[in-house]
Amino acid sequence: MAALCESFTLCGLGPSGGVGLGGGLLALEPGPDPDHVLLTDRGRTATLFKVSDQKPLGGWSVKHGQIITCPVVCNFETHEYIAVHDDKVLRIWKNKDINLDKVFKATLSADVYRVHSLPNGGPVVLFKGGGVRTLDVLLEAPQQEIENIISDEVIKWSEAFTEGQQPVLIFATEKHHHISLTDSNDSVYKVLIPLQQNTEEEEQILSKSLLLNLSVSGSVLKGTSFVVVDKDHIAVLGSLAASGEESKECLTIWNTKFQTLQTSKELPLGTSGQLWCYEEKFFFTHGKVLTVIMYKCETSSLAAAVGKLKDSQTPDVSSFVNWNTLGDEELVVSFQSQQSVALKSESKMTLRSKRNTVAEVQPDTLSVGQLLLNLKDASTSVFEDELRQLVSTAQMPDFQATIGCVITALINRCKTNPKYYPRNFLLHIVQTRDLSYSLCPDLMAVALEKKDVHLLQICLQQFPDIPEEITYACLKVFLSISEAYLQRIDVNLESVICYIDIELNNKEVKTEIVENGFNAELEQDMRDTKITKETHRTADGEFCPVGPQKAALLNAVLHSAYSETFLLPHLKNLPAQQAVLFLRYLYYLHVKCSEKINTTLPGIRSPTINQVMDWMCLLLDAHFTVMVMLPEAKELLSNLHKFVRAQVRFYSELNKIEASLQELQRLHHQKDPQTYSIEVLELI
Question: Which residues are in the Nucleolar protein 11 N-terminal domain (predicted)?
């Protein structure tokens, strides 16, 4: 007998879903714990989730311009994570790592199709040419030559398992531009593969046998994917339709022994056709969310197959709770079901009020979830004191997730009490703990609502996985806030202080070097308490169009990782006046960078020339037509055109002497003067 049980949403898949899966889900793999799964999107991000809590435990992204090209997996022996981006670049990191640019990197000699990780055998790497290496062997010499086993074929599917303590990897291929499997998708076939090597034959023709017809009562299931549940059951995701009726997508469980449909569930919002099965749970996309459905399968019998076996047991779903939908009483019951063995052994238990529970039960005997539940109605001072103590705990399991839960509790209180906003507490947590956007997706949304630009600045600098929608929202807020307001608040100025001079009272002054220590115009500006126009010159007379506070905030946006595909649609919604102001600042930075020989601005977290150029191109792509029509943008575009044209000419002249410089370098290496000498070389 098989049955589908409790279902819940693990996470959203769009940009607002909080896990950066806007490009769709590439794969789902088991995590280091049976309750963990590792999600890889079709782009730059991998996220570790705790299934029972529906909470992200960590998120990692490769930098802009890179793409993760096969599913991220966990090395169960070392508890490390393995990713391949851009087909050949291998990355290995641990939970504590945040920035993938700083973790182990190895560039391989051939394109990788997939990495398979076995619980007892370690990771195995399958290359697109059919070559296979264990990870340990590959790391000994990453540039080792990988043989091509297949030609004019592409791998369509692969799987790894352990047989007799030996790892086994199987993959299926098809010819280029030719589909080798011509059978319809309403049947499932079984192919037996002998694992013993036949030394007499290089190739063997394998026979297939029909395992299951996906039809029942005149309806046919057009399957898109399936997973093997046990020796007698398979689950199929597909479209079920009777003749003359509209097809409906559904998840089904079939008994292969008795050729019967055991259970099904309609999926009206549609799916991506992907299906995964781990730890008695199905995972699949449903609409714009990733859905989890628990199931149970019992030993196959004829009575169960035809539905005559009584269901005497109910699935144990006490540990899988959707915290967003349960009421307080349900939460208490759920948490009580997860108490320690010592508490369960008590013959009698009385349900105390929440206030008494907080007072009488020591925090170290409670789970984090129970503690947060007990603090739900506590006073603000007690609430924050308990959370500060929890955050300051030195070591605990799932520490990142605990911090994420603390921030979520603070944000939830902000939502229920609009007057409550623990700005300093939130700022302290973000500044002192390694966090990511996926751990606390509502934090930046609340900061945007409160216009807490300092917290947004820190998040942009430290979170590696901020969705482009949120990056754009921060940019719009930064550009819209007045300079007068920004001068009254705290902003980190370390990215601008080395190229925009700041007075002690945060009033801006011009950046010209003053000879002999006196300048009448500068003295007048310093005495004046009201500055009518806050600008700063570059070497060629260009002014900085924004004050230092706004410049520092915009620099944080420039440092944020993004995908052009997802950012450009949002950027087109930026008001024209704000777009012009932003372009003026980018042009100012471009000129400042070009003043330096190494095109690098001084300071900490200052924008790079590449970041400035990328954002200028993005902004012009999004608003060029509008800017051409705006009178106030005409001079800016003209100056930008002249500046870029001058740079192109300059680099063109450098290119002309490149060959001569290379020749000089070659001559220098050929000569080995034993005595001091002076050589004069003339370039013609």
Answer: 1-178, 183-296
**Closest listed residue to residue 48, CA positions, set 25, 66, 84, 74:** 74
For residues 10-20, b (16+ Cβ closer than 10 Å) or e, as one string? bbbbbbebbbb
- Those residues with Cβ within 8 angstroms of residue 225's Cβ, 6 or more apart along the chain or in another chain: 236, 237, 238, 273, 274, 275
Sequence letter at residue 511: T
**How far apart, in whole angstroms, are the C-alpha atoms of residue 99 and residue 428?**
20
Confirm if 463 and 561 have CB atoms less than 8 A apart: no
- pLDDT tens-digit readout, 333-348: 333 333 333 333 333 3
- Segment 82-110 mean pLDDT: 93
pTM: 0.49
CA dihedral 300, 305, 309, 313 (to 10 degrees): 60
Give the tokens for residue 222.
Answer: 């057009």
Predicted local distance difference test score (pLDDT) of residue 662: 76
Query: Could you count the other beta carbons within 10 Å of the beta carbon of residue 491?
Result: 20
Domains of the chain, with CATH numbers?
Answer: 1-9+183-191+208-301 (no CATH), 31-181 (2.130.10.10), 368-466 (no CATH), 548-642 (no CATH)
Neighbours of 101 (CB within 10 A): 11
Average pLDDT rounded to a whole number, residues 17-34:
74
CA distance 451 to 432: 21
Question: Which helix H or strand E contains 566, and what residues bound it?
Answer: helix 564-571
Q: How many residues make up the chain in this entry?
A: 684
Judge residue 331's burial from the number of C-beta atoms within 10 Å of its C-beta, 0-12 exposed, 13-18 middle, 19 or more buried: middle
Q: DSSP states of 476-498 as a string?
A: HHHHHS-HHHHTTS----TTTTT
* Distance separating the N- and C-terminal Cα atoms of the chain: 89
CA atoms within 13 A on the CB side of 611: 19
Distances (CA, A) of 547 to 422, 453, 551, 633: 28, 15, 6, 20
Which sign, positive or negative, has the C-alpha torsion 136, 137, 141, 142?
Answer: negative
Q: For 285-324, give one letter per residue: b (16+ CB within 10 A) or e.
A: bbeebbbbbbbbbeebeeebbeeeeeeeeeeeeeebbbbe
Q: Is 200 helix (H, G, I), strand (E, B) or coil?
A: coil
Q: How far apart are the C-alpha atoms of 139 and 78, rounded to whole Å?
A: 15
Task: List the 36-41 sheet strands across, edge first.
Answer: 25-30, 36-41, 45-50, 55-61
Contact between residue 140 and residue 127 where contact means Cβ atoms under 8 Å apart: no
**Residue 364 to residue 353: CA distance in whole angstroms:** 19
Among 366, 384, 466, residue whose Cα is nearest residue 428: 384
Instruction: Report residue 248: phi and psi, to 5°.
Output: -130, 130
CA–CA dist 143, 592 (Å, integer)? 41
CA–CA separation, 438 and 444 (whole Å): 11
Q: What is the pLDDT averaged over residues 158-177?
A: 84
